[in-house]
Write a structure and sequence with these properties.
766 residues; alpha/beta; Rossmann fold; 3 domains; 27 helices; 13% strand; elongated
């Protein structure tokens, strides 16, 4: 061991006797200081301006624009300059022969030089740690474990790079060639994860071998045994390669035997890496204060309830535009989306089924319009060099799972051993893939009853299957819309009240009837209300005669006339209803809408009025019109060509009117009955949800979300909000940034540079 230490010390002395090591350290610290100050300055300025700060530790050090990410990128260039002479210098000067003839083994030579690099890496991180300590002093509730995890990731990456550089330096006597070769290996390890991903046998091996993103998880505050093993194994592999190279020269081994040794080491490393990356073998530690890298408690509780086997099958249609989301080349990256869940259920199986069938691709419909799906598949396989045998027909898929309703789009199916199933989709938004809320919602339906929402039909009501402007499909059944009820854990169906409301219906929706219930239908509706069923009733102006009998049972009525709030920007009947304090009784999450002064846009609405308070309901006001500038208009009906005017003689009174009421009633031995009555049906329509009205702080969909959260008793949608990180304050004034920049960008690097010059001059004089 002493020989290793002496060799390391000698190598460090040699390294620092040249200006290269000093200059790299100076440039490194200069870049660290410059990057740090450029990140910190906007934080300080924002706080001076009163902007809300949050998660400062991670925003300064982690993320795409964080300090650690910048350091990680720069290591790519520093290390080859440091390692290029480790062995090349020995070969070029002939001193390698002296080492061979000395009582020093190849192992000691390699470990000594590698130890020197490890120490130099600690010197570099020491400069970074100065920045970390300063940040801990100025950032309130600084999250030190996150930063230490990030520094561990950077250090492991540095050591891995150093082992690669040491090996490449052993292959040539030319230092420049060694540096270029090191960079080439970095590039290969960076891009190998994208290579041969369509080949089943090779995919997992190349994916594991890739160094790309390996330290990223550390920078985000997560320490994972899989990635630690990766760095350790890769370091071992290249140190072993170096040993084989030196041993081959020392013992004059044949090229074939040497190559065989390389292959054995490579195979052992791959095998060990594969084993260490199995879900059952992985250990995690989330260093973040708020456990940002871990499932929320709600999700963890659901995973605990999923006893027995669980399989996630992803069905990917070659002939659909969503193919690339689950193609063989992206399979491993796609599986990473579920790593947080596999962490809590390692035995969970993830399968992919590739098939061909009618999809939504207009491109293939155009260029292959006369070809059958199978013929199209063969053409596409030829173009992408896929093996046609890996694809099965849509008919074969149907025997496995009924996914016909998905129209050939990318879809996943969770399946328990007991046969329970749940669908998980991708969405037409900028994020595409499901968040934790959608994944957990699908899983939760496997361990409990999914709320059934029934939309009443038969009288011209708004339909959950209608994708038109007035329809409700957008928020109810649109599979490509992330927040649709079917993607948040609800079951949605239509119901004709000519039969009794089934016992499994949890919420009944009656929206904009154009004719009255028959006595039999009304009796079924009344029986549902009497038994304590939850309800949503949405009225519309000019429909009061049909809708009032429905709400009269609740002690309410829809007013005659129409609510107006004249403005210069919009038609008079466009109402921006305010969220009232009574909404908090329905859902505490309405508080964010109140704080943010959010409104709900209700085009062509009528007021909801209480006429009989003796029905046993507690009534709360959820939405209301402003107290000034709004009233119930009884005269004007054509707001496009006419302007409404307040006419007290007609009974028009400028005042706040209720647009939405929330009714609750306690039923013995049953959950609390909850009812929402809304004076407008358009606010939930596809047209309104997709309309952006400038100047109006509208949040219609938040209202829908919280309404159904209340009706499901807080079970759905799944709540995945996390505690706000406490590191939200920077305790330095903005005018101190000048001195801070002076210290970190100039004083520290120049001080080391001055020390370097003095050291080298003093050595030369000796």
């Amino acid at each position: 061991m002493k020989k290793i230490y002496k060799l390391a010390l000698t190598e460090l002395q040699t390294l620092f006797y040249s200006p290269v090591a000093w200059l790299i350290l100076v440039i490194f610290l200069f870049q660290v200081g410059m990057t740090y100050c450029s990140i910190l300055e906007p934080k300080v300025m924002g706080q001076e301006l009163g902007r809300m700060q949050g998660n400062l530790t991670m925003s300064i050090f982690s993320g795409l624009r964080g300090l650690f990410e910048a350091i990680q990128r720069n290591l790519y260039f520093y290390v080859p300059l440091l390692t290029m002479g480790l062995m090349s210098r020995e070969f070029g000067s002939g001193s390698i022969k002296l080492l061979y003839s000395s009582p020093i083994t190849n192992t000691q030579i390699i470990l000594g030089k590698f130890l020197a690099m490890m120490v130099y890496g600690l010197c570099m991180l020491g400069g970074v740690f100065v920045v970390v300590l300063y940040s801990a002093c100025i950032v309130q509730n600084f999250d030190m474990p996150v930063v230490l995890a990030g520094m561990l990731g950077i250090y492991l990456l540095f050591c891995t790079y150093a082992s690669i550089g040491l090996f490449m330096s052993s292959l040539t006597s030319y230092q420049v060639v060694a540096a270029i070769g090191t960079i080439a290996i970095f590039a290969i390890l960076g891009y190998v994860g994208n290579s041969w991903q369509h080949v089943e046998f090779v995919r997992d091996l190349t994916y594991w071998l890739s160094i790309s993103g390996r330290s990223k998880i550390f920078l985000e505050g997560m320490i994972c045994s899989r990635d630690i093993f990766y760095f350790v194994l890769v370091i071992f592999m290249f140190l072993a390669f170096t040993f084989i190279k030196l041993q081959g020269e020392r013992l004059k081994r044949s090229v074939g035997r040497t190559a065989g040794s390389y292959l054995v080491v490579f195979a052992l490393v791959l095998l060990s890496g594969y084993g260490s990356s199995r879900p059952q073998m992985i250990v995690y530690y989330d260093a973040t204060a708020t456990k940002l890298n871990t499932l929320t408690e709600n999700s963890q509780e659901i995973m605990k309830q999923l006893d027995g086997g669980l399989t996630l099958t992803t069905y990917v249609n070659l002939l659909d535009d969503t193919w690339y989301n689950g193609s063989p080349s992206s399979k491993n990256y796609d599986m990473e989306r579920f790593e947080r869940y596999v962490r809590f259920k390692p035995e969970m199986k993830i399968n992919y089924v590739y098939y061909y069938g009618k999809g939504t691709s207009q491109h293939y419909d155009k260029i292959y319009k006369d070809l059958s799906p199978k013929e199209r598949m063969l053409k596409v396989c030829e173009g992408y060099s896929y093996d046609p045998k890996m694809f099965i027909s849509a008919e074969e898929v149907q025997k496995m799972d009924d996914i016909s309703a998905e129209n050939g789009r990318f879809v996943r199916v969770f399946k328990r051993d007991n046969g329970q199933k749940a669908f998980l989709r991708i969405y037409e938004d900028m994020y595409v893939h499901p968040f934790e809320s959608e994944i957990t919602a699908a899983l939760k339906t496997l361990v409990g009853k999914s709320p059934v929402v029934a939309f009443v039909k038969g009288h011209g009501e708004r339909e959950c299957d209608d994708y038109g402007e007035r329809g409700y499909a957008a928020f109810a059944k649109n599979p490509t819309f992330r927040s649709a009820l079917i993607n948040q854990g609800f079951q949605v169906k239509e119901l004709n009240l000519d039969i009794s409301v089934p016992g499994d219906v949890d919420v009944l929706v009656i929206a904009d009837m154009k004719s009255s219930f028959t006595p039999e239908e009304y009796a079924h509706y009344s029986a549902y209300v009497d038994r304590g069923g939850c309800l949503i009733v949405l009225g519309e102006p000019k429909r009061q005669v049909f809708m009032n009998p429905v709400v009269e049972k609740l002690g309410l009525r829809f007013s005659d006339g129409m609510l107006v709030a004249p403005s210069k920007e919009y038609l008079d009947d466009i109402i921006a209803a305010n969220v009232m304090e009574g909404a908090l009784k329905a859902s505490p999450y309405f508080a964010s809408m109140i704080r943010g002064r959010k409104t709900v846009i209700t085009p062509s609405a009528c007021a909801v009025q209480v006429v009989d308070g003796n029905k046993g309901f507690e009534i709360s006001e959820v939405l209301a019109t402003p107290a000034q500038g709004s009233w119930i208009e009884y005269e004007t009906t054509d707001f496009l060509n006419e302007t409404s005017k307040l006419n007290p003689e007609k009974g028009e009174v400028e005042q706040s009117n209720s647009v939405m009421l929330y009714l609750t009633r306690d039923i013995p031995n049953k959950p609390q009955q909850r009812i929402f009555v809304f004076g407008d049906a358009d606010c939930l329509s596809t047209k309104e949800l997709s309309t952006n009205r400038a100047g109006l702080n509208a949040s219609n969909f938040d209202m829908i979300t919280e309404m159904f959260r209340s009706l499901s008793y807080g079970e759905y949608p799944i709540e995945t909000a996390r505690v706000r990180p406490p590191d939200d304050n920077v305790n330095i004034p903005q005018d101190s940034m000048f001195w801070l920049q002076l210290f970190f960008i100039w004083l520290i690097p120049l001080s080391i540079l001055a020390w370097c010059i003095m050291f080298l001059i003093g050595r030369k004089r000796k």
